[in-house]
Amino acid sequence: MRFLTIFRALVSAAIVAANPITENLQRREPTETKTVIVEKVTYECPKINPKVFIISMFQYEADIWYDNAETEGSIGNLLAMNITVPGFSMLFPDVHCLADKSVCQLTTGESEINAAATIQALMLSPQFNLTQTYFMIAAIAGINPKYGTLGSIAFSKYAVQVALQYEFDAREIPENYSTGYIPQGSYAPNQYPGSIYGTEVFEVNEALRDIAVNFASNSTYNDSTTAVAYRANYASSDKAYAAATKKPGVITCDVATSDVYFSGALLGEAFENFTTLMTNGSGIYCMTAQEDNATLEAMIRASINGLVDFARIIIMRTASDFDRPYPGESVEDNLFYADQGGFEPAIQNIYIAGTPIVKGILAGWESTFEAGVKATNYIGDIFGSIGGEPDFGPGSIYGGEEVDLSQVGISKRAAMGRSRRTAKGKRTLQTAERS
Question: What is the pTM of this model?
Fold first, then answer.
């Protein structure tokens, strides 16, 4: 009873207390309606249009550019502008550019996955217009002593993914095999692969490569007393490694891509043979690296979509170490323990060779490079994805035309050939006879 009385009293008080507010609100109600027009304004930052983009793989390759920002004759301060790009490596999240944005640089992180992820992120970034940009892969690598020496500067036309193969453990190699690496879909090391993924071989603009070689050929390159002493060990009576005993200079030969950091004459020769096989005899394996085919695959996909010009790519690698031991040296000494003396010269020579190339492109922009350097050779991947007929491999799968993305994909898969599962191993080849 007491509760009900209290409740009624509270309700009455609430009503009494509420009424003045309601009346006040009614008195303040506007007598006329006003329309306010809000205009939506969108601001877009202008895209960066670099003329040259330097691609480094790890810290030391990048630092050589930063450390020489104030050096007389350098390209300038690449840290003047720093742009964070979503999708870049957590260790190297930024693009760095000169103040005038004419030259930019990035670091991918080492290995194929890091390179592919970073370059793909750059290709798709709305912050850049890369349609006229020249890309220079500027990094160190191992070198085949048949073709060069510590500190050599190699410019490549082909990049070959040499480890994209079947593999047997070395202790279980069949007696009649020369190596444990066998091209996919084949039965022996010397057979052409029966299964092609599309990233096995890339070919870049030979005319542009030769221009880069010309720009770089007038420089004096760094060397070390340790490297001089170490390369002398490669002198032999048959002169197979004569190139290894010379001082560093500019050479033209091709780069192998493998995530596996290998050492030894047997593996080196196996990858030499695979390079020859995959390029129809025209490729020369001299440099071994971990990223280039991944970088080029991201670029070929961007080129298909009109985001970059695949004819504007330079592959430059400098030699930091030999890929195989000298006669009498063990593979473990070559890989783990020997002080070859090539690392510092290789890093320095990236800058020494790269600077005149960058400056040459900038100086000749209006007369030559803005319009592009016309390729006289096939450029692209093993599929022929951006048009033309590859001068290696089984030929274009698109009839020499650029791929039309509206005509491929899952709905067209039957016309494009077997799936990976049915194209692998014995299902695509005639029954092999055991010898």
Answer: 0.86
